[in-house]
Each structure stands twice: as structure tokens, then as C-alpha cells.
Design brief:
The chain is an alpha/beta fold. The chain has 11 helices and 14 strands. It is globular and about 70 Å long. The chain binds 3-isopropylmalic acid (IPM) and magnesium ion (MG). The site of 3-isopropylmalic acid has 4 residues, from helix 4.
Length: about 375
């Protein structure tokens, strides 16, 4: 029997609730399609700070490294917001991404027709785009720090505190992610948009040079460039014209929230973080830990369930099981079941809690 090890990192807030839904769904398809999954839970984020004083322990990182794939809920919450930068819960995410070498972050944004009324856009009919976000470089991992300097202001000289964060990309880092962008475009509508700020940033100009060098290797893919400010506008203006967007860590972070919102709810958006072949991929919802609704049953588990489908497809090669999960989610929506975030005006739908909607997906597998 095919047998896989899954590291489960539930995290904080609604993380454990949505991770539990996804584990149930994974177990159901494993049973149906005759493969074995063993789940092992690891702490990370705020709960790890509380227990071990650090957001990411070596045990968690090693456990994830030794697995076939990692399923993550979400980390963070106001309780740890005041912590100094090195022990913030988000450090766990960044540590897992860099520790596992997960440089490629796939964030598909798909509009389920049933959810069109939940989108803040009017008359939206089609959104099916993929954001390929560079995940282990750029300003997230560049030099940062504080120093004090003598600033000259119009009213005299003051000693001021300064802070800096550095956006820096090597050709090799750009090349591998841009190639991913081209490869995914080849499997889709063959349209790649590089999003940057090349009118201002030198690093963006290097991204463009590298992309132009790679493009002749993919003659079927049409490549275009868009400044990030313009892109954020065009995502609202003409979302259906996008296919694959490839971009830096920071721009990808921002644009993927926007892409999520226009599909109805960020509660629907899955993601995959991948490294070189052979490294375990990490799968998580794009949304955060939503501490305000933790424990209320309002969390939408569908993004994590759809992330589990990506896990089966990209890390385990269990394509049929992945399709089954996606169909079950689609059918759940088509049958009118919703969590409150995607209820729209509530007309003709049944609003369920986290556990109940998970049950509806399970029944449809
Ligand atoms: C995301 C999140 C993280 C990021 C935070 C929690 C560090 O916003 O995965 O999009 O900025 O990458
Ligand atoms: Mg984000």
C-alpha cells in the first residue's frame, strides 16, 4: 500500500479547527483510494512560544523535513503581537519556508460561480488565475535593522532613529521562480505576467532582464510586465484576463490577499509552497489565524481542505484523490451550503459552522 507521512502544524487561532477539517477529508480520500496516511502533529507559532519560548523548535522543523508533506493551519494572534521581532509567531512560518527551501508559493485564485454574489466585484463571472510568489528571498529575508542618524529637518538638526529593510534578489533566485511561472503558464492559458515596480526598483529591473532571457525558451507563452500598483487596479478592473502572475515575495503577499477577496472570500484560498523536487511541500490556507473568530465555529475550512487537495496533487501524486476533494467542495457549494463569510446575502443558502460544512464535504467524497 502506498504510505505517506504528513506533518500537521495546526498553529494558533482557527488554525487547529481548519487543520482538523482537512485531516478528516484527507483520511476519507485515503480510505477511498487505498493509500495510507500517517499524521503527526507539531507545534509552531504562538503555541510554541508559550510552550518552548520560541516560535519554531528544531523538533518541528526536523519533523516537517522528515515528512512527505506538511499541512499547516495558521499562526499568530494579538497575544504575541508585542513580542520582539525574533520571537513573533510569524517567524515560525518564515523559518519553515526558508528551512525547507520552499521558494515557490502557488496561490490559485478561482471564482466558484456559486460564490459570485459573495465577491465585492459586481458582474464578475470568471476568475481563474495563479499567483506564483517567490517565497524565500526579497525584503522578507534581506538585511534589516535599526540605527540612529542625524537627520536634517527644515527646523533644524535632530537625532533620529532609522529602520531599514532590504529588497535584494540574485539572478539565480529570480531565474528559478520565473521558470516556474513559465512552466505553470504552459499547463494553463499560456499567459505570464511579471509583476514588479521596475519604474523605481533596481531589483525589479533585474527581474525583467532575467524574464526576457528565459522567455525564448517558452515561445508559446506570452509574457507581459505590469507595475504592481497598476496590477492591483487591473485585478479589480479585468480579473478574467489574468492567467499566471509571477512576482516577488512582498508583492505576491499583497496581491494574493486582493486576489482572494475578489473571488468572494479569502476563506476559500489554498496555497502550496514548494522547493526542489524531493523536499516536502507545505500546504496552508492563504488566510491567517483569525483569533477574533477562533472557537466560534465560524471559520471556513474550505481553504485548508483545498490546500489538502493541492498536497495530494503536488507532493503525493494522488491526482484522483485531489480531484475528488475539489469536486466535493464544488458540490457542497452547489448544494447551497456556506460558512458565514461566503453566505452573500444569505438567500437560498444554508449557513453552517466549521464542523457541519466539513461533514457536508465528507459526505460528498
Ligand atoms: C502569508 C502571510 C505571511 C506572509 C505572514 C503571516 C508572515 O501574510 O502567508 O501571506 O507575509 O507571508
Ligand atoms: Mg499574506
Amino acid at each position: 500500500m502506498r504510505q505517506y507521512k504528513i506533518a500537521v502544524v495546526p498553529g494558533d487561532g482557527i488554525g487547529p479547527e481548519v487543520a482538523s477539517s482537512a485531516v478528516q477529508v484527507l483520511s476519507a480520500v485515503a480510505e477511498k483510494y487505498g493509500f495510507g496516511l500517517s499524521f503527526k502533529e507539531y507545534p509552531a507559532g504562538g503555541c510554541s512560544i508559550d510552550e518552548f519560548g520560541v516560535p519554531l523548535t528544531d523538533e518541528t522543523l526536523e519533523g516537517c523535513r522528515a515528512s512527505d508533506a506538511v499541512l499547516l493551519g495558521a499562526v499568530g494572534g494579538p497575544k504575541w503581537d508585542k513580542a520582539d521581532a525574533s520571537i513573533r509567531p510569524e517567524k515560525a512560518l518564515l523559518g519553515l519556508r526558508s528551512g525547507l527551501g520552499l521558494y515557490s508559493n502557488l496561490r490559485p485564485a478561482l471564482l466558484f460561480p456559486e460564490l459570485a454574489s459573495a465577491s465585492p466585484l459586481k458582474d464578475v463571472s470568471e476568475i481563474d488565475l495563479l499567483i506564483v510568489r517567490e517565497l524565500t528571498g526579497g525584503i522578507y529575508f534581506g538585511d534589516h535593522g535599526r540605527f540612529s542618524s542625524a537627520d536634517v529637518l527644515s527646523d533644524g538638526q535632530v537625532k533620529g532613529e532609522c529602520a531599514f529593510d532590504t529588497e535584494s534578489y540574485s539572478t539565480a533566485e529570480i531565474e528559478r521562480i520565473v521558470r516556474e511561472g513559465f512552466r505553470y503558464a504552459m499547463g494553463r492559458k499560456k499567459k505570464l505576467t511579471l509583476v514588479d515596480k521596475a519604474n523605481v526598483l533596481e531589483s525589479s529591473r533585474l527581474w525583467r532582464e532575467v524574464a526576457e532571457r528565459i522567455a525564448p525558451g517558452y515561445p508559446e507563452v506570452s509574457l507581459d510586465f505590469l507595475y504592481v500598483d497598476n496590477c492591483s487596479m487591473q485585478l479589480i478592473n479585468r480579473p478574467s484576463t489574468f492567467d499566471v502572475i509571477v512576482t516577488s515575495n512582498m508583492f505576491g503577499d499583497i496581491l494574493s490577499d486582493e486576489a482572494g477577496m475578489i473571488t468572494g472570500s479569502i476563506g476559500m484560498l489554498p496555497s502550496a509552497s514548494l522547493g526542489t523536487p524531493g523536499t516536502p511541500g507545505m500546504y496552508e490556507p492563504v488566510h491567517g489565524s483569525a483569533p477574533d473568530i477562533a472557537g466560534t465555529g465560524k471559520a471556513n475550512p474550505l481553504a485548508t481542505i483545498l490546500s489538502a487537495a493541492m498536497l495530494l496533487r503536488w507532493s503525493l501524486g494522488e491526482e484522483i484523490a485531489a480531484d475528488n476533494i475539489e469536486r466535493a467542495v464544488k458540490k457542497t457549494l452547489a448544494d447551497g451550503f456556506r460558512t458565514v463569510d461566503i453566505a452573500g446575502d444569505g438567500e437560498g443558502v444554508t449557513v453552517l459552522d466549521t464542523v457541519q460544512i466539513t461533514q457536508k464535504v465528507l459526505e460528498r467524497i
